[in-house]
């Protein structure tokens, strides 16, 4: 049976970044990456709907070690090219096995190893691999199917219903009546990409969402390039600027949410009338209580202003043979209905985990800083930030894992498990994320399967990059929270 010091699950933005840190910071460690799809990229490879792009800037969504030289809001193709360069430049490709879907992972306290069972999707063969440490980078949602609610009459609709997660390559929406259900970042991407080619394109949303808008370029980067500053310097300078501005923006939203709300709405009012903004783009929740997507060059609002797209804020009563009837009685004709209604979360990819033959129920664990679990040895879960770029945590946890692995070598131990002390064991356990802090529907639907937190910063995912960037590097690896064997 093959053995690797580290097994990384997933070759998306997190898996590729984590591989880089292993290659450069711990070149003596053997490692393997198992990826379920036939190529790298994760979200950016599997999502094929029109206009697919980032909703945050690539100076922070990109890695700290690899300069981003394009426009800040990037297409999936541009992001894949960037990741491909990281793989090629750091000789990561030989370490990745594609079409390997991980099914189970068993920890043995006797051997102090994980035994991973995967299916080779090309051959149907079951593959078994042993590893000393698991680095889980498979994302946080179901990669196979999106979330589509059931509405009355769906079976009567004579047109096509499609979810962006499973977008058909041959879907022809030219000169068709299209209704896009949803109000988030996917809708904001799809609609401007499709609207000009549709006969009609209508956004149907139950409630509005906050958006930020502006030009798809960063003035600081443009000025520095004119001065012929090296791209490595530009990347670091702009990255720090964007992170600082993000921190200031969140602090302002926390201290004065009404002011920030009006500033966001003013950005929309530049393109749409005040009445339209009040009816369709004024959310009921505080700014940043849900993720805020960036709309580059206001393309969504321009499509609505130009008449290429329309927006209806209403609830669905039922599907009809030729469209949707809303609760207020509107009839929306459609040949194609796109359910941009989100996704289903999966804890650690839905893989079955066992510790000494006992199945792990992650809903009964408490998460150490949102990256390790009580009772589960030698495993890290990369779960990024909702209010900042996901990749920021990839780099932070990359440094932490390497430091932890080296510390274990120095101590001459093979296993580490985070544990609660006696007092902490008695503390009340709460849902993984405070809904007053962050409450998107996909997260609320999944709270019963997510790990728990207690009222101590180290036993929860604070979702605060601006604290973690200082705290995680300073973690005392000899703290009693870590039990070594």
Top keywords for this entry?
485 residues; alpha/beta; FAD/NAD(P)-binding domain; 9-stranded mixed β-sheet
Question: What do these coordinates show?
Answer:
- The structure is a single chain.
- The longest helix has 25 residues, at 231-255.
- Helix 1 (13-25) packs parallel to helix 11 (391-411) and helix 7 (231-255) packs across helix 8 (257-269).
- This protein has helices at 13-25, 43-46, 58-61, 76-89, 185-194, 219-226, 231-255, 257-269, 274-280, 299-305, 391-411, 422-425, 441-444, 465-471, and strands at residues 2-9, 31-34, 96-97, 100-108, 113-120, 126-136, 141-146, 160-162, 177-181, 200-205, 211-214, 293-296, 310-313, 316-320, 323-326, 331-333, 336-339, 343-345, 352-355, 358-359, 367-368, 372-373, 379-381, 416-418, 482-484.
- Strands 1, 2, 3, 4, 5, 6, 19, 20 and 23 form a 9-stranded mixed sheet that branches. A 5-stranded parallel sheet has the order 8-17-9-10-13, covered by helices on one side. Strands 14-15-16 form a 3-stranded antiparallel sheet, with no helix packed on it.
- The protein is 29% helix and 23% strand.
- With 485 residues, the protein is of the alpha/beta class.
- The model has no long low-confidence stretch (mean pLDDT 95).
- The protein folds into 2 domains: 2-143 and 344-484, 3-Layer(bba) Sandwich (FAD/NAD(P)-binding domain), CATH 3.50.50; 148-341, FAD/NAD(P)-binding domain.
- The protein contains 14 helices and 25 strands.
């Amino acid at each position: 049976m093959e053995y690797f010091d580290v097994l990384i699950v997933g070759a998306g933005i997190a898996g590729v970044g984590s591989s880089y840190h292993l290659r450069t910071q711990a070149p003596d460690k053997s490692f393997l990456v198992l990826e379920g799809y036939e190529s790298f990229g994760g979200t950016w490879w599997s999502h094929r709907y029109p206009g697919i792009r980032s909703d945050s800037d690539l100076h922070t969504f990109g890695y700290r070690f690899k300069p981003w030289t394009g426009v800040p809001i990037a297409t999936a193709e541009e992001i894949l090219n960037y990741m491909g360069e990281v793989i090629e430049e750091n000789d990561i490709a030989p370490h990745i096995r594609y079409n390997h879907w991980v099914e189970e992972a068993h920890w043995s306290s006797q051997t102090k190893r994980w035994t991973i069972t995967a299916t080779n999707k090309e051959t149907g063969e079951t593959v078994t691999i042993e590893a000393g440490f698991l680095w889980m980078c498979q994302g946080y949602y179901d990669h196979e199917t999106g979330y589509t609610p059931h509405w009355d009459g769906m079976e009567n609709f004579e047109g096509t219903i499609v979810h962006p997660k499973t977008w058909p390559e041959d879907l022809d929406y030219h000169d068709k009546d299209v209704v896009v259900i949803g109000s988030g970042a996917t809708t904001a991407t799809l609609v401007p990409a499709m609207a000009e080619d549709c006969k009609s394109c209508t956004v149907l949303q139950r409630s509005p969402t906050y958006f930020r808008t502006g030009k798809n370029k960063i003035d600081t980067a443009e000025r520095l390039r004119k001065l012929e500053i090296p791209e490595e310097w530009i990347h670091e300078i702009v990255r720090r600027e964007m992170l600082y501005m993000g921190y200031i923006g969140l602090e302002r939203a926390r201290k004065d949410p009404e002011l920030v709300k009006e500033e966001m709405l003013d950005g929309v009012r530049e393109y749409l009338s005040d009445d339209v903004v009040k009816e369709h783009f004024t959310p009921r929740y505080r700014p940043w209580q849900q993720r805020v997507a960036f709309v580059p060059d206001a393309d969504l609002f321009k499509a609505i202003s130009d008449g290429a797209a329309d927006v209806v804020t209403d609830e669905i009563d039922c599907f009809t043979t030729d469209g949707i009837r809303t609760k207020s009685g509107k009839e929306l004709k459609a040949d194609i209905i796109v359910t941009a209604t989100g996704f289903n979360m999966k804890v650690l990819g839905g893989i079955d985990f066992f510790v000494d033959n006992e199945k792990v129920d992650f809903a009964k664990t408490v998460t150490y800083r949102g990256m390790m679990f009580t009772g589960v040895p030698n495993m890290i879960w990369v779960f990024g930030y909702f209010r900042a770029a996901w990749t920021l945590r990839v780099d932070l946890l990359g440094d932490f894992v390497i430091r932890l692995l080296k510390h274990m070598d120095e101590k001459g131990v093979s296993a580490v498990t985070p544990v609660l002390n006696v007092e902490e064991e008695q503390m009340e356990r709460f849902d993984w994320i405070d809904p007053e802090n962050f409450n998107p529907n996909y997260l609320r639907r999944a709270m019963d399967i997510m790990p728990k937190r207690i009222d101590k910063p180290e036993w929860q995912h604070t979702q605060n990059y601006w604290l973690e960037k200082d705290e995680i590097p300073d973690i005392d690896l000899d703290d009693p929270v870590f039990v070594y064997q």
